[in-house]
Amino acid sequence: xxxxxxxxxxxxxxxxxxxxxxxxxxxxxxxxxxxxxxxxxxxxxxxxxxxxxxxxxxxxxxxxxxxxxxxxxxxxxxxxxxxxxxxxxxxxxxxxxxxxxxxxxxxxxxxxxxxxxxxxxxxxxxxxxxxxxxxxxxxxxxxxxxxxxxxxxxxxxxxxxxxxxxxxxxxxxxxxxxxxxxxxxxxxxxxxxxxxxxxxxxxxxxxxxxxxxxxxxxxxxxxxxxxxxxxxxxxxxxxxxxxxxxxxxxxxxxxxxxxxxxxxxxxxxxxxxxxxxxxxxxxxxxxxxxxxxxxxxxxxxxxxxxxxxxxxxxxxxxxxxxxxxxxxxxxxxxxxxxxxxxxxxxxxxxxxxxxxxxxxxxxxxxxxxxxxxxxxxxxxxxxxxxxxxxxxxxxxxx
Amino acid sequence: xxxxxxxxxxxxxxxxxxxxxxxxxxxxxxxxxxxxxxxxxxxxxxxxxxxxxxxxxxxxxxxxxxxxxxxxxxxxxxxxxxxxxxxxxxxxxxxxxxxxxxxxxxxxxxxxxxxxxxxxxxxxxxxxxxxxxxxxxxxxxxxxxxxx
Lengths: 398, 148
Prior knowledge:
The complex is a heterodimer of chains A (398) and B (148).
Chain A: E1 23-29, E2 32-39, H1 47-51, H2 59-64, H3 73-86, H4 92-120, H5 124-145, E3 154-155, E4 158-159, H6 165-190, H7 193-199, H8 207-212, H9 217-221, H10 229-232, H11 253-277, E5 293-301, E6 304-312, E7 318-324, H12 326-332, H13 334-337, H14 346-351, E8 363-367, E9 372-376, H15 377-397
Helix pairs in contact in A: 4-5, 4-11, 5-6, 6-11, 7-15
Chain B: H1 3-11, E1 15-22, E2 25-30, H2 32-45, E3 49-57, E4 62-70, E5 75-83, E6 90-92, H3 102-112, E7 115-117
Parallel strand pairs in B: 2-5, 6-7
Antiparallel strand pairs in B: 1-2, 3-4, 4-5
């Protein structure tokens, strides 16, 4: 290793254009990525410690803000944990409302990812259309909860707001529109020979690696690991509804794309059933005190298992609150998924675990032999888009 | 044989305490020296998935709880152990058994001060480089200050 490390372009993890900082240092030899160094912690805010100074019913508002795009998942897992601790039975109607909210979130989260993935491989039309079709879903959230993100719906023992009849009417219409969009994307992505050629075989995470790194969510299911918290450890109303877990085998970026696309279809099915079957009744168990004890709650967030552990001592505050987002285990697995691949696949591989957003702008590429930064994150995206262009030209010639 | 029976049999004498909080939440206490082997049994023999570990500062000890998920049945088997030497808490790393434990051991090391012996690379995960050494944010010891 050289004594003097020359950084050609210093790209800090903070950048005005970025939503969230994370740093990937990709070590390359020629065109091959040989190692990946992942540095996180730039948005560590001490949420677990903060929880210890909040009342139990303040914590959902805190954990909702851990992540902007899957802001249902954390409060949902948290209330599940406290309800496990205290043995609270949640009214049926509330379980169905929780399920509707969670599945709407899955749809808009997967749509967002689809758009970003499209951008990374040079399909900016996919990007624009995917984000356009998120809008009706966000409008539904605004109608039900008042907010496009951070819905404040989950509370210990139930939900904060009811699903009114006019909401259900609007929801049914929106689902038809979204279903049309999902069908369009399914055709556009799965039947396009260029996309298939571009993403097939890229960023493979084998089944063994998926198990060894304990990955979750679509990242796991794309590698043939058959896990889904909604089916395995049911919560909400999932065990009362008819839906299926989507699995693929190849573990590459194409497989992960297919899983997310097909999951959106299942989410629409689930929401429709909820709207049909939701019973009348209370939406809140009106919990007063939380006894001493401990509980574990989890949900299948769009990215995978979101885990919360809560320990109480009988006061009105948690004594310990452990939070583990799905990206914690999934992002770590990029160490093997990106290594061995080409530099032009790096952007899409890092993005394929859907790390709450695409953090590859934070990536920089370092030449192993000289230890110099040779490429920035923007270069990686440009390289990825160029590869698609060349592939398209080659396929058109055939 | 049910799955919980298999777990009981596989861990045998290592089990100091077995607590079934609810049908799908089971907490098993073992001695620190038995933790690594118990984790290996869970991961390699029983095929459980390592979900995460929780480190908690308690009055008597540093408590470590390793949460393993049996995805086939939706049960969590949480392996718990207590490190009584609060000045120098240490335990064998399980990162050699599952890569999924590498990051959380780094996190517990930096936030609680537990040394994981044999970990491939204990370095900071979340805390900034200029965070002072020896200050563990998740420890609950009260600092003596001028006012109280």
